[in-house]
Design goal:
Blueprint (H helix, E strand, L loop, with lengths): L1 E5 L6 E9 L6 E2 L1 E2 L43 E15 L2 E16 L7 E9 L9 E10 L4 E9 L5 E11 L2 E10 L9 E10 L1
């Protein structure tokens, strides 16, 4: 028989008194010690991030080793430029080129989930009618205690063509710059993926 603890959020750590059984009951875990059984991102051993929660159950919110929050200085609105470029290439030769330039607006709100949220918009340059002239996207991400941001850019090329790109960035003072690469197959007849590059340069 094994001791099991009620695990409502399914994070592998439970609460309450042990239930001794030969087989694992539904929604139970073998490890106790969860300090919030309603949040899967909260349990012993979890990495602390800036989200207003005590992720690692050490008794401190948004900090490691005690003390005040290490995240409050990052909160605020960041605005600036956004640029995305999709290119179809044959070797090093560019066959089709779709640059899109515009603006980015990102908010870091420690009470929100996720704590990093934003929008982008841009205007296509050139005559590739497969892509909308005005394009948009969203940004979501998590903020680490050291100012690191891991997130996702979802860019809408047209009403049916939407792609997601994961990124990692680092806050530096009042500046949050995000850059990354990806790929795109804009049409079922596309022979090879197009190369995608994007960047956001924002400040508070």
């Amino acid at each position: 028989a094994t001791s099991y603890y009620s695990d409502s959020d399914g994070d592998g750590y439970g609460v309450g008194n042990a239930l001794v059984a030969c087989n694992a009951p539904l929604a139970h875990a073998t490890q106790a010690g969860d300090c919030d059984d309603g949040q899967a991102s909260v349990h012993p051993g979890e990495s602390e991030i800036c989200d207003g929660l005590d992720n690692d159950c050490d008794g401190n919110t948004d900090s490691v080793g005690g003390g005040a929050s290490q995240c409050s200085s990052f909160a605020g609105s960041y605005t600036g430029s956004y640029a995305l470029r999709a290119q179809e290439k044959l070797g090093n030769a560019v066959i089709n080129d779709m640059p899109c330039n515009g603006t980015a607006s990102i908010t870091i709100n420690l009470a929100a989930s996720p704590s990093v949220q934003g929008t982008v918009s841009c205007q296509r340059v050139g005559g590739l009618i497969l892509f909308d002239a005005n394009q948009s996207g969203t940004i979501t991400g998590e903020l680490g205690l050291d100012g690191s941001v891991s997130g996702t850019l979802v860019h809408r090329y047209n009403s049916d063509l939407v792609r997601s790109y994961n990124f990692n960035a680092q806050l530096s003072g009042d500046t949050l710059n995000i850059a990354g690469t990806g790929s795109l197959l804009p049409h079922p007849m596309s022979a090879v993926p197009w190369e995608v590059t994007y960047n956001m340069q924002t400040s508070r």
